[in-house]
């Protein structure tokens, strides 16, 4: 089976090789500092006894899983610590498709490209549901395409790339559809700390054997390289997911898990509040510049991405390269996220130069 190289890598490589200064707004790599307690925990770990450098429990350090379980109000045995949200989503989608309950995966359009990639890798068939222009999802559209062949429904809230936040009513309806068709709802909540609307509702607040929640500390703690995430499975699905996790990865990095645990236990809410305030300011400045450029755009209610459309300048890969060469700004082509946003670009506001990038775009257009 052939797999396409993700466009992210092509764009980042092109920008890195450009003959001019380029503001990188391609990938969601946070540019702010992680919690201080995380650094301290990692330093302390370096002096631990050598037995602490050996394999951890495959499903994750017990103390970390207990901390997660208490915070999420679930049983500790439902929690599997994974190599980021990427592996958590893989385990969840694999579990959904190996149940012989259907091989179709319902995805939104626009969609984070790794979900279709995983669907292909797992042998599933994709069905797409278009979101509204503001990124909101009408569950009735999901119900229209759901069938007895539906094995999995994947949603991301707060959403990448639209910045939409799904409210409780939406999540309840999605769980109900999954239950009706014996499918699994996989709710990727990796941006849960970046809700600017107050409407975010975790699927974990809805009791069901038909939903799996995935997330990671990559974004909330600005540690995409640590690769510490987790999935919360219904009890009936945990055993098989743990086995697959062990066979694929053996375990997740022990020092990284311990550092995350230290950060969870010793970081107050102010850290996250300051990050949200900083991102709100970036969103304001960036969208103001898009107004100057005459662009149409979606203002995110969550996460840290802005999608924009410029007149007579569709969001193709070639035009992304043009913006790199002529404006000095690197974003992602809308075509990477599905058919419904082919005219758009996505910009990640995870650079202290977001204001500069916005001014460059305003000047260019």
From TrEMBL:
GO biological process: amino acid metabolic process
CDD domains reported in the protein's UniProt record: AAT_like
Alphabetical UniProt keywords: Aminotransferase, Pyridoxal phosphate, Transferase
Any GO MF annotation of the entry: pyridoxal phosphate binding
Domain Aminotransferase class I/classII large: 21-357
A Pfam family the protein falls into: Aminotran_1_2
InterPro entries (alphabetical): Aminotransferase_I/II_large, AspAT/PAT-like, PyrdxlP-dep_Trfase, PyrdxlP-dep_Trfase_major
Requisite cofactors: pyridoxal 5'-phosphate
Domain of life: Archaea
Family: Belongs to the class-I pyridoxal-phosphate-dependent aminotransferase family.
Assembly and interaction partners: Homodimer.
Protein name: Aspartate/methionine/tyrosine aminotransferase
Organism for this UniProt entry: Halogranum rubrum
């Amino acid at each position: 089976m052939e797999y396409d190289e993700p466009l992210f890598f092509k764009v980042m490589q092109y920008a890195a090789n450009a003959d001019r200064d380029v503001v990188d707004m391609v990938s969601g790599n946070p540019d702010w500092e992680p919690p201080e307690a995380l650094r301290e925990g990692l330093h302390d770990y370096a002096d631990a006894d050598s037995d602490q450098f050996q394999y951890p429990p495959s499903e994750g350090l017990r103390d970390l899983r207990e901390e997660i379980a208490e915070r999420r109000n679930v049983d500790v045995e439902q929690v599997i610590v994974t190599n980021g949200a990427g592996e958590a989503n893989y385990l969840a989608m694999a579990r959904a498709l190996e149940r012989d309950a259907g091989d179709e995966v319902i995805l939104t359009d626009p969609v984070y490209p790794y979900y279709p990639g995983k669907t292909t890798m797992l042998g599933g068939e994709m069905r797409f549901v278009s979101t509204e222009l503001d990124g909101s999802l009408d569950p009735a559209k999901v119900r229209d395409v759901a069938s007895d062949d539906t094995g999995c429904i994947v949603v991301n809230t707060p959403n990448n790339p639209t910045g939409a936040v799904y409210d409780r009513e939406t999540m309840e309806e999605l769980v109900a559809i999954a239950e009706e068709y014996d499918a699994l709802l996989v709710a990727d909540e990796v941006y849960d700390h970046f809700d600017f609307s107050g409407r975010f509702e975790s699927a974990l607040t809805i009791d069901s054997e038909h939903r799996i929640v995935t997330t990671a500390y990559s974004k909330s703690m600005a540690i995409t390289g640590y690769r510490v995430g987790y999935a919360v499975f219904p009890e009936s699905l945990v055993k098989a997911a743990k086995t697959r996790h062990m066979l694929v990865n053996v375990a997740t990095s022990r020092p990284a898990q311990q550092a995350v645990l230290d950060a969870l236990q010793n970081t107050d809410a102010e850290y996250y509040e300051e990050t949200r305030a900083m991102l709100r300011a970036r969103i304001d400045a960036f969208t103001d510049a898009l107004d100057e450029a005459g662009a149409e755009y979606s203002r995110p209610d969550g996460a840290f991405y802005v999608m924009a459309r410029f007149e007579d300048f569709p969001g193709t890969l070639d035009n992304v390269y043009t913006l790199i060469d002529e404006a000095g700004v690197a974003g992602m082509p809308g075509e990477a996220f599905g058919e419904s946003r082919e005219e758009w670009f996505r910009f990640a506001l995870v650079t202290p130069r977001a204001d500069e990038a916005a001014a460059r775009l305003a000047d260019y257009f």
